[in-house]
Amino acid sequence: MLEIVIPGRGSLALEHLLLDVNGTIAAGGVLVPGVAESLASLESVLHAVAVTADTHGTATVLRTETGIDVNVIVAGDEAAQKQALLRELGAERTVAIGNGANDALMLREAAVGIAVIGAEGAARAALDAADIVVTDIADALALLLEPRRLRATLRT
């Protein structure tokens, strides 16, 4: 568990990390360099779950490369399926990271929502829904590896 006190916001007790795949932790179905290592560093404090419609057919490879749970959703209304998974994990205990319009519901409802503007860009809906916006998945994961950065960004 990752416990953080955010001045002006209160205490967070984070247990889960919900990750969009394509455009967030992977580009063209290939894991972004450094992601597997960062996730391994976080595994003692956060249970990571990737969520994907498996557009590139790489969910099995992703499981092998990262060692995290991978939840494959069906094409069609991905936003609602991602939100349902977030609720199953416990939105108040989950950090969500994504970049697409279909990530906006989970980003808005998560205890902390982080939008990533990577090489694929990011949907305006994701940016509006997020608590934090970064330009690289490495930066998003670094906020969790160094919670003081997260506190500094979110304090009021």
Proportion in helices: 25-40%
Topology, number of strands: 10
Number of helices: 7
Low-confidence stretches: none
What does the overall shape look like? globular
The main sheet comes to:
6 strands, parallel
Chain-averaged pLDDT: 94
The assigned structural class equals alpha/beta
Strand content: 25-35%
Give, in order, the helices and strands. EEEEEHEHEHEHEHEHH
Biggest sheet: strands side by side, in what order?
7-6-3-8-9-10
Distance between the termini: 23 Å
What would you report as the Rg, rounded to the nearest angstrom?
Answer: 14 Å
Question: What layout of secondary structure does this protein have?
Answer:
Elements (H helix, E strand, L loop, with lengths): L1 E5 L3 E5 L1 E5 L5 E2 L2 E2 L3 H8 L4 E6 L6 H8 L2 E4 L5 H12 L4 E5 L5 H6 L2 E5 L7 H6 L2 E3 L2 H9 L1 H8 L2
Parallel strand pairs: 3-6, 3-8, 6-7, 8-9, 9-10
Antiparallel strand pairs: 1-2, 4-5
Helix pairs in contact: 1-6, 6-7
Structure write-up:
- The model has no long low-confidence stretch (mean pLDDT 94).
- Helix 1 runs parallel beside helix 6 and helix 6 packs across helix 7 (147-154).
- The chain is 37% helix and 27% strand.
- The chain contains 7 helices and 10 strands.
- Strand 9, helix 5 and strand 10 form a beta-alpha-beta unit.
In brief:
This protein is of the alpha/beta class.
